[in-house]
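Good morning C.,

I know you're traveling, so I'll keep this short. The sequence:
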Amino acid sequence: MRAARPGTSRAGLTLRVVKEGAGLAALSAEWADLYARSSAATPFQSYGWLSSWWRVYGSPGRLRLFLAYRDGRLVAAAPLRLEHRLGCRVLTPVGGGQSDFTDIVVDDAEGDAGLRDLRAGLLAQPGWDVIDLPEARPGAAIRRLAETWDGRAWTLPASTCLQLPGRPIEQVLDGLNSRRARKVRAALRKLDAMDVSVAAVEPDRVRASTAELLRLHAMQWESRAINTQHTQPSFMEHLAGAARTLVAEKHAALWEYRVDGRLLACDFTVIGKDFVGGYLYGAHPELRARADLVTMLLRTNLAMTHRLGRPVLSLLRGDEPHKAKWEGEALVNQRVLLGRGSRSAAYAAMAGVRRAGGELLKRRCPRLAERVAAWR
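The tokens, ready to paste straight into the viewer:
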């Protein structure tokens, strides 16, 4: 593997660093094998998601993919890229802001000893001051690594993710207050009367369906604060490439909703090992005016979650009102900062100041905060 070079060895673990995309492209089979052995890994750490993201958004020479081998077998990987922020050399996750969960990937069999070996290997690598993973979910491997870190480690609250029990929607309604449950049942009856048809998209049609999803998504958010990334051709390239692989590997599903034969909505959903997660949907304004879209999507995704035996359906990042009214359990991601040296402490302090400022803006000027978040 020409792009990789030997690194640090300790107790049988060898750390290698891949700095070019060609090295990432050669890892498909090894990465899939490691992913299967890591219970904490999510679809946002799958090879299909990361390789598609790097192909579209990656900058030459910025990749820092740390690979840990024990007895010749890949047992841990940290998919990172090098950025310069606030005078620091910062390692941020491949996948960037398009990933709802950011993490490293570690073989379950490695346990705490493997994390300690990985920690030693990372600390021995030159060329960085801070590792910054902004969205580590509960149980993430990076959170476990932070607990054993020899250098400076900080955590800050990040996004809130609401989740519902992985049961059919009729059973989920039993846990809602009676007024809300009545409204949802009425919405379900209306959907049934409209005769909405739902079909899963096969891998060979994913690209065309993704284009329709993003077209409908832009229509749905017209004249409102849309996430501007979702309107860019680069996002289309990434999502279509990643979705095709993830759907083929059953790490995701793409749904199309039709009324009277017309395609009026599409929904892309990731399938993790312990959750199903609603990532992005698009709906025609006509359907939005006639039906409760969230109820429509949740019925399909809750049924899939139950069928696959996953314990929860995650609504992923954000606790917006249309999610909160489902009274789901709230889990808070963490921003994990791992540092060394004095510059890392200054970086972490600034991260804390910026977060406090953002929270103040949300409380005092919520609409402005929403527009700023969409612009970012």
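Safe travels,
E.
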